[in-house]
Design brief:
single chain; 762 residues; mainly beta; seven-stranded antiparallel sheet; 3 helices
Length: 762
């Protein structure tokens, strides 16, 4: 931090703490180091990348991809796995097919082969979300069939017995041999048993109620299909139990359960205890001998060419492709549903995979399910690399990639900028510009981690902690110089910085920019609810040509009224504003590189009405997998809005919502909303739908409405929301498949706790 001029407004306290990051570099995307010669990296269209050697045969290339016509950039992670090396690809789940877990938890619980460790993990295929949770595609682990494919999921990622991979059409077939003759076995551990069909359920299924697999949407009160239903429990090929109601709870490893509907149920129900029943089934994958199968949906690449897909929506995406010989696996994950990018289309993902050298590729689950974990060089475990919205979604299955452990002796150094340009959802750190750019005369803090010959953790605390050598760094460069772990930039132009620590070294390429012509803070103004609150901003410099780069607090001069607030520097590039007054308006003045900017802030809140329901007749009702109606009623102190709903028609996630005549845009930062609710005691969860200033949707979660009579419900706006926000709907949510009911709640106004008007700049 510069102390070159006095600060009459009071001191600013800075404490630097370096942080590791996944970074974007302004480089042409190159093939991963030591990749197979026939692998073509996706250089077309990708303008920046970071290359990381994760393990021998496993490489990550990540960077931004401009949108069509130079539009909104997308962030892509491409994991390349050389299957001819000593790497493993394993199918994992959350303990059972109907017991979802985060990919992070599954990777942590995975048991790799002796002498190996998990270096990466990726989410699996689509699943019966909100109901049984079971995968909808085919599944196989170590040659054991887990699930049969459902309609629309006929293709799968397949790893053959010889270790090569590909995308194959899969099919399930089976036979149930009864004393009275044979029956077709239609499905295995599936979300639904077809009409007049038979399904087999094993210990892989879990303890989810099997009554849900014979549920017929549209029946009342969650009843099962009025057509005959039967369940038979088999033990060592012999009937142990016959019943007319499917059971629940775990299935013993030595038992098998047949669930049947319609005419098949009549034949199953005729069995008696002790009858012999023989089962045969197989999962075929064209001409392959599958060892691992993971089902997906759309084929994205075939014969090296993108396959047209009728889907123009933008979302986080996950897909897997293979080289022509099946020796190289490409895993792609794209960001989405965050302030930086809405996501990618399937067509864009297909083009990326084809340019990466995939001759065939398959779409896996995307949206909130999209998860890519990859170990950093020298890291102790895989960490999240993509940004797909809010919290990590629990999914039923995933793939983990394993590689041999190393010696833990430090043989190399991973050197990179310490700033994290892509914070996780909900972080108080705003997204930042490319940290591999730095302005002349300014500093860029670097971080360094030691790694062994297998690119795994090294040093005295391995494998439990990384070998952080940031404090030991000695930096040098053809131009510029070093100040401990900070590189001090010289004249504009590209520069390679060399860092050494503890006898090992590495380099990082930076771009030195001319002095900034302007500074911008993100966000541009701050609201603090009280003296107990804090707020953060980051600083971006912009050259005359429009090139942008982050400015670290160490290079700034900061002024603020000491009676209103103090500003504290954080090592991750943030400026933290801490109020010293209960209320008031002010501004933080920040100067760097000869230019300045002001960040207005306000302290304190006010409560304002958002909705009074004077226009209740113009509100509309909608429902997902249920029914919903709305009408004006009398509230506790003025007009109200009744929402009548029916959640008995399906067992999956159901919603009933009310929508204003037009979305309600706010012009101030919102801290919390309060909704008046006259409850019906049924337990549906109250939710508030918002769209933030960057176009990202947010669902504010309230309590389950388990009360009768009036109550006010407060819903806080989480961190990471870009203000101002727009209110799009108020709704009820039911995500428990065992609950079916109907009812009515009354909404009695909506108010917002908002910031007072920030200080005006002019």
């Amino acid at each position: 931090m510069s102390l070159s001029r006095p600060r009459p407004s009071g001191p600013v306290h800075f404490a630097a703490v370096p942080m590791a990051a996944v970074l974007i570099a302004p480089l042409a995307l190159l093939a991963p180091p030591q990749a197979k010669a026939d692998v073509v990296a996706p250089s077309a269209g990708i303008v920046g990348a970071v290359e990381e050697r994760v393990a021998t045969g496993v490489d990550l290339v990540s960077g931004p991809v401009p949108g069509p016509g130079g539009g909104e950039a997308q962030f892509v992670g491409l994991l390349t796995v050389d299957l001819t090396e000593e790497v493993g690809v394993e199918h994992v789940d959350g303990g059972a097919l109907t017991s979802p877990a985060t990919v992070e938890d599954m990777a942590a619980a995975a048991e790799p082969p002796e002498g190996s460790t998990v270096v990466a993990a990726v989410n699996g295929g689509f699943f019966d979300i909100g109901a049984t949770q079971v995968p909808l595609g085919a599944g196989m682990r170590d040659g054991r069939v887990l699930t049969s494919p459902e309609a629309g999921f006929a293709h799968a990622v397949v790893i053959d017995a010889d270790g090569t991979g590909g995308v194959r059409r899969v099919a399930f077939e089976g036979t149930v041999s009864l004393p009275t003759g044979d029956l077709d076995l239609d499905v295995l551990n599936a979300s639904t048993v077809p009409e007049d069909g038979v399904g087999l359920y094993t210990s892989d299924w879990g303890d989810h109620p099997r009554a849900h697999v014979v549920y017929a949407p549209g029946t009342s009160s969650g009843d099962t299909d009025p057509a005959p239903v039967a369940e038979v429990v088999l033990s060592e090929g012999t009937v142990e139990h016959v019943g007319d109601t499917p059971g629940s709870g775990p299935i013993d490893e030595d038992d098998q359960v047949l669930v049947a509907r319609g005419s098949a149920a009549e034949r199953i129900a005729a069995l008696s205890e002790g009858d012999p029943v023989d089962l045969e089934h197989a999962l075929t994958a064209e001409d392959a001998e599958p060892r691992l199968v993971l089902g997906g949906r759309h084929v994205l690449v075939r014969d090296g060419e993108p396959v047209p897909v009728d889907d123009r929506s933008r979302a986080p995406r996950t897909a897997i492709g293979f080289s022509e010989d099946g020796d190289v696996m490409h895993v792609v994950s794209t960001d989405g549903r965050n302030p930086v990018t809405a996501g990618s289309t399937l067509t864009e993902v297909a083009e990326l995979l084809a340019s990466a050298g995939a001759t065939e590729a398959l779409e896996l689950d995307g949206g909130g399910s999209s998860t890519l974990l990859v170990r950093e060089p020298g890291g102790v475990r895989p960490v999240l690399r993509n940004r797909a919205g809010d919290h990590l979604r629990r999914v039923p299955d995933a793939l983990v990639i394993t590689a041999p452990e190393g010696s833990a002796r430090t043989t190399g150094l991973w050197l990179r900028p310490a700033l994290e340009p892509r914070p996780v959802y909900g972080s108080a750190t705003p997204a930042q510009e490319d940290p591999r750019r730095v302005f002349t005369g300014m500093r860029r803090t670097l971080a360094a981690t030691g790694h062994d010959e297998a690119f795994g953790p090294s040093g005295p605390r391995a494998p439990d902690a990384p070998d952080d050598r940031t404090d030991e760094l000695s930096l040098s460069a053809p131009t510029g110089g070093g100040d401990g772990p900070r590189f001090v930039a010289g004249p504009p132009g590209p520069v390679t910085v060399t860092g050494r620590a503890g006898g090992v070294g590495s380099t990082v390429d930076l771009e030195v920019l001319p002095a900034p012509a302007a500074l911008h803070a993100v966000p541009g103004r701050l609201g603090l609810a009280s003296s107990e609150d804090t707020a953060f901003f980051v600083l971006t410099g912009v050259t005359e040509e429009g090139t942008r780069a982050p400015v670290e607090p160490v290079d700034t001069d900061v002024e603020v009224d000491p009676e209103l607030a103090e500003v504290v520097a954080r090592g991750d590039g943030r400026f933290e504003v801490r109020p010293r007054a209960e209320e008031g308006n002010g501004a933080v003045t920040v100067t760097a590189g000869g230019v300045s900017t002001e960040v207005p802030f306000s302290i304190g809140t006010r409560t304002a009405p958002v909705v009074t329901f004077d226009d209740a007749r113009e509100w509309t009702a909608r429902s997902a997998r249920g029914t919903a109606e709305t009408r004006p009623v009398d509230g506790s102190d003025g007009p109200g809005l009744a929402l009548t709903y029916d959640f008995t028609r399906d067992i999956r996630i159901r919603t009933a919502s009310v929508h204003p005549p037009a979305p309600i845009a706010l012009d101030h930062q919102a801290f919390a909303f309060t909704v008046g609710v006259r409850g019906d005691g049924n337990g549906a969860r109250l939710m508030l739908g918002l769209t933030d200033g960057s176009g990202v949707g947010h669902a504010l979660k309230g309590p389950a409405i388990d009360w009768r009579g009036g109550r006010e419900v407060r819903l806080e706006v989480p961190d990471g929301v870009v203000h101002p926000v727009t209110v799009s709907r108020v709704y009820l949510l039911e995500d428990d498949p065992s609950r079916a009911y109907s009812g009515e709640v009354v909404l009695d106004g909506l108010t917002v706790e908002t910031a007072t008007r920030p200080h005006s700049l002019g």
